[in-house]
Every structure is written in C-alpha cells, then in structure tokens.
Amino acid sequence: MKEKTEQKILWGVLVTSIISLIYLLKKPSIKDWLLVYFMNGFSNVFIDAFFVSKDMLSYPTRLFPKILKGNFLFDILVYPTIMVYYNQVTRNDSVFPITVKIFLFTIPMLLIELWAVQNTSLIRWKKGWTWKHTFISTTLKSLLNRLAIGVIRKIDANIIQM
Description:
This protein is mainly α. Helices cover 74% and strands 2% of the residues. The chain has helices at residues 3-24, 30-53, 72-89, 95-119, 131-161, and strands at 57-58, 124-125.
C-alpha cells in the first residue's frame, strides 16, 4: 500500500479515536475512565519502546515519526480508548465475564494488526514476533489493567465508607 494511503488511514484512525474517546469520557465515572486511559497509555509507551529497541517490531509508516519510534497513535490513543470502552462494558462483571469479554476486544485488534502486517508498512514484525505474541501480550496486558482498576475501585469504595 502506498504511504499516502497509509497516512490517510492513520489520520482517519486518529479522528475516529478522538471522537470515540470524547464520547466514552462522558459516561460516569470519569475519574475511573481517565485512570484507565492514562494507565494504559503510559504503560503502552514503555512496553512498545522496549520491543522497538529490541528490534522485534517497527513502524515504518507512522504519524509524527520525529517524535517517537513507536506507534504513537496506537499506544497513546487507540488502545487506551479501546480499554476505556472495555472497562465500561465490564464495570460490574465478575471474573468469568471479564475474561470472556476481553476476547471480544483483543481478537478484532489482532485481526486488524494481521491485515496491517500483510498489506501495509504500518507495522513490521521481526525477530520471531508472531500473531501469538501480539494476542497473548494484548490479552494479558488488558486483563492486568482491568484487574488494577478493579482493585483501585475497591480501595476507593473502602476509603469512602470509612
């Protein structure tokens, strides 16, 4: 795919993500959603930087290539926005539904990444990185982030009751 078309895809994803995030942050409880968003974005930047520095992943075509070598759009905007939605959907769920629902989020992300790897220069897998690495890492990271916000909610509820 040509770089101009790929840049248009990236700008479309950027606009869609910003609009989605604005909509999602209007739902109560905004402090939870902002915490989910920033916790996810912060950890994404460090994790992605690690894998890029180990030359396991690269992003030949990206927005703002002079700012970050990682995937700024996915790390800072797309994935955190998706995780806000996931946390909203699972807010009152027990462990089993939380675990099942994560696959409704990670499998589509994986399929989009597979398409991007095969048809664009938006992402390149190197040094043995495969779809399994992407699937396992996003699933585990998403579940850990959901666990962390669940623990924070419980602590917050206990402090309020005191």
